[in-house]
Automatic annotation (TrEMBL):
This is DUF2182 domain-containing protein. It comes from the Bacteria. It comes from Paraburkholderia metrosideri. The chain crosses the membrane at residues 25-46, 77-98, 119-148, 154-173, 217-238, 258-278. The lineage of its organism: Bacteria, Pseudomonadati, Pseudomonadota, Betaproteobacteria, Burkholderiales. Pfam families: PpoB2. InterPro entries: PpoB2-like (IPR018688). The keyword Transmembrane helix applies.
Amino acid sequence: MGHVSAIGGRQMSGRAIEARVSQRVFFGVSALLFAVSAAVTIIGAASMSAMGEMPMAGGWTMSTAWMRMCGQTWPGVAASFLGMWVAMMIAMMLPSLVPMLLRYREAVSGIGETRLGPLTVLVGMGYFFVWTAFGMVAFPLGVALAALEMELPALARAVPLAVGVIVLIAGALQFTAWKARHLACCRETPGRCLTVPALPTDAATAWRHGLRLGLHCSYCCAGLTMVLLVVGVMDWRVMTVVTAAITIERLAPHGERVARVIGVVIVGAGVLLIARAVGLG
């Protein structure tokens, strides 16, 4: 009897060691991925900044992210934008995604699943696939709008005011029940808000779980993403502020209250931008 207990104890000790090693690998890979994506984002933003911006009617400048430079093809520009977008999203979302993945791992390991590494990768891939798709939609829309602004000076002159209005709307979204619901889903454990048939314990359901999580979090970040797109999509300062806002409202206690405080700041920025645009006009 004692021999059986000793064997059981060694098995439990072995599982505990494996769990600790797995968790350390998870944190190590996450830190490395964040460092690489942040470095790529900063280098790309600096490179784009070095190319300068185009002065536009209305006293503002257009980012080269939406333009085809000499020697570039549109497929090349699109691929470059998408690569930068994915790196930027990984750097911006990973600080708040890691705790969610950690809760997922704990929930899945609690029902005896041992393939935590591959399943975690699939959830993360599904999550960032949603953001990649968002970038694939944003790029042609941004290019088309930039082309119209260059062809129509009257439209270009209205951009500063439009930016202020969009920022104001983005701030207002922070106070809505829609925002609160999706924020709660991003802060909860797997299965509470996400309509998953069961905890993801195979590749297909892990992928779908990542997709659902990505959709909830993209909805949650809709207002802050709007600010990023209209204020400075490749500006590292804007990216840093938006990343901090996303991370704080996801991880801080009383996230809904934090989101509303962030909303007050964004609304104030929108009012200032509108006032500035009207003054310049």
